[in-house]
Amino acid sequence: MTVTPLRRAFTVLVVVALVGAATPAAAAAEPDPGNLTWTVQPANPSGPDERRWINANLDPGQVVTEHLAVRNFSRAAVAFSLKAADGYLTDKGRFNMLPSDRASVDGGTWIDVQEKVTVGANETKVVPFTITVPQGATPGDHPAGIAATVTSTGGTVNVESRVGFRVMVRVSGTVQAALPVQALTARYTPSWNPFAGGTVRVRYTVTNDGNVWVAGRGRVAVSDLFGLTSHDATGDVEELLPGGSRDVEIRADGVWALGRLRTTVSTTPTLLGDDQTDAELRQVSASVTTWVLPWAQLALLILFAALLLGLRAAARHRRRRLLGLLARAREEGRQEGQESVVVGGSPSGSEPGPGDARG
Fold this sequence. Notes:
Keywords: Membrane, Signal, Transmembrane, Transmembrane helix. By secondary structure, the protein is of the alpha+beta class.
């Protein structure tokens, strides 16, 4: 994905709840034929400010007052309900808040805001709200959301449309972050080109077992050819809230695998939010061993061996044939020599020739 964790954090939280089930919606809600449209954003007492979400670093027992601005773009006044709830990340990594039919147990319960506000047509109203951190609050991040909602009735179904933003409360204390790797697998896919290395597809699940909001980076090291060579690849870990998890896939190309293939994944967390001090960031790693055979290279090796054996067999055949021809030529030469002696010689006791004298 091209959206960075911080940019995603800037996006306005929009939730549409249908009979208690929450699903993402667009930045402007249109819950009924009246075509209501509104926005909600952090503010100061004078009006909307530059913030797109609120990040509060507080001590246990501390109380702060913040503000939100509701802007009504509709042609008529609208009575909005103001609600706060615990925040979470969806499977697609988008920030959301619990629907109205689910009770909050953490940061959402720390926000106190008036129940309703009426905003006139094309008007903006600023509403204060307080964040109260309990005395026994644990250190780290406690995500929440706050939204202005409108409920409309369609037949027997109530549709709750809401627009809001995230409220990230970080309680002071020991901040820890780590991204342990679970369910690590590595699958080798050879290249059909025998002169090119294959691809290792690494899949694993990373979990935020710290107490703060983090992103991170995963590094894959693949050791092949009995550890003589290695290949590295990296991939980003999208933002994770405490206790959240995400599946990650990274590819390492150009790997020459023969027999034992060892893959090691290391993760390094990156702290998100304004407070970057006193953070204990731990790097963790996990390894898996895979046994593979490079079929394309083996096929080439077998073909080369077959070709070599064929050439050797052909050479032996030609040598035997040549030796046979030479042996036959020598035999024919000996036979021709013997025949020439018999035909052209003068054996003892034979009759004299024409030029011999007779007594």
